[in-house]
Amino acid sequence: MCFNNNLLFQNKYVIFFVIAGQILVAQSLNKGISLGSFKNNDIKSIIYADSKDSIKSKQQLQVLINNSKLEANWEELAKAYRIIMYLSDKKWRMNYADSLLNAAKLSANFDLIGQAYLTRGILYYDQKEHKMALDNYILADSYLSQTKNQYGIYKVKFSIAHTKYYLGFYHEAIALFKECIIYFEQENDVAYLNSLHSIGLCYNKIDKYELCSQYNQLGLQKSKELGNNELVPYFKHSEGVNMVFKKKYQRAIKELIQVIPLLKNKDDFANQTVAWYYLGKSYSKLGLNDKAVIMFNKVDSIFVKYNYIRPDIRQNYEWLINYYKKKKDDKSQLLYINRLLKVDSILNHNYKYLSLKIFKEYDTKKLLSKKKDLEKSLESNNRILFWTTALLSMSVVLLSYRHYKNKKRYKLKFEELMHERNLPKTENHIKKELQSKNNITKTNELDINPELITVILQNLEKFERNKKYLEKDMSQTKLATHLKTNTKYASKIILKYRQKKTIEYINDLKIDHIIKLLQSENKYRNYTNKALAEEAGFGSTQNFTKAFNTKIGMPPTFFIRELKRKFPL
């Protein structure tokens, strides 16, 4: 969505509930919100928690917590936990949320229990655990629906709708947002405007661009009538993005250029990033690539600084790679290829429910494009069919001879491999391995601190022992992260102490693992190359077979066939 969820919990003042995803609530947290502005949350001694006096506030709350426990006043205890939770560091909030839920359950107050589940859902959402967030929202709804707290019920509806939007269930989200619009129109201006904004975003996602525009215009109109301008930039932002999908690029540029300064004033880097991306896309569509590349590089600068990325912004890097490819700028092209690898890693983690769908759709588009190309070329291929047929017989002869030579070479290699793997290690071999591992003092050529080398080698051994190399698409960057160092140091140390380049080192570990499985467990001999590639964590079957051939000197299918022949079941 177009707002920055990271702001939701950066509050300086106590709040008792947050509707996940509400722009105005998110921004208000930094300004301070009176406890009186929230319903059903009155504590005898209202405590404001200014960041300058948070220690004193926590001390007061601890006294309140202790007294509430002694008096078995579970409702008061639950409310105290809610306050101290928002005063605490993020890493402790879930612990306090669990305590809040336990106290609420002891109170047997369905309203408190429902709000406690809602709070946990919000925290899970902030951690990008969207399935857990949705589970807690549903539990919150089950309790609140048995109370008269209509306001709380619709807070949960909004939260569920927002999560379903994130997970890609746009039609379900629209149905819930419609209910929220009807209810909040009479109850809460902020929630009402947020619901209008959110449903517009949903309609954009299902290609209902006119409906998206209608809700954006309605949101601007209602903002003016209600005298609330907080969401005005976001309705304009949504409309600017929507114009790109409607292919009205000049209009999109005008809208987005106007809204960027407003977002900058709110320190909303996330929506600035989205605006820059769709500005770049508009310029690109108009053939203004010099302007487009400036916008796309701005997007990259935010990614480098904050690791902020969304699935729709991924194409930013595909565009940059192609742009620098045409410019024949190999250095920049390599930079953005590496950046895209990191982007995909983050998307697969943060958007795991959407990433498969997104990449599948992308692959489908490529396949459809390829299909069209093949159909166009089919006509011209018919013209060369005669010559192809004439040469085919000669090619068959040459291929048969090559196959015969390869098969002979593979068999010889297989026998050598079986012989080597069955031989015990010689004393000289063992000494050589120990010398390689202990040769840490000779580090001048590496220009790395010897103590750091020791730590990295320990991490490398842990990496090998725990078989982390089997992770999907293990790359040089991911390996460096496991070793707790940078890619430069990782590659130097692996080259010296494993006598291999990084990718070769990773691939060899994967292939050795597969070889051991094939030799020790018969079931793996029935696996396809694709299944074996997945077992070893290769990104594709092609990468697996290539690595296997490089390491072993023969295709995996031939190796398995010889294993079955030599060691039948």
Automatic annotation (TrEMBL):
Keywords: Membrane, Transmembrane, Transmembrane helix. The keyword Cell inner membrane does not apply. This is AraC family transcriptional regulator. It comes from the Bacteria. Residues 450-562 form the HTH araC/xylS-type domain. Signal peptide: none annotated. GO terms for molecular function: DNA-binding transcription factor activity; sequence-specific DNA binding. The keyword Transmembrane helix applies. The chain crosses the membrane at residues 384-401. InterPro entries: HTH_AraC, TPR-like_helical_dom_sf, TPR_rpt. It holds the Pfam family HTH_18.
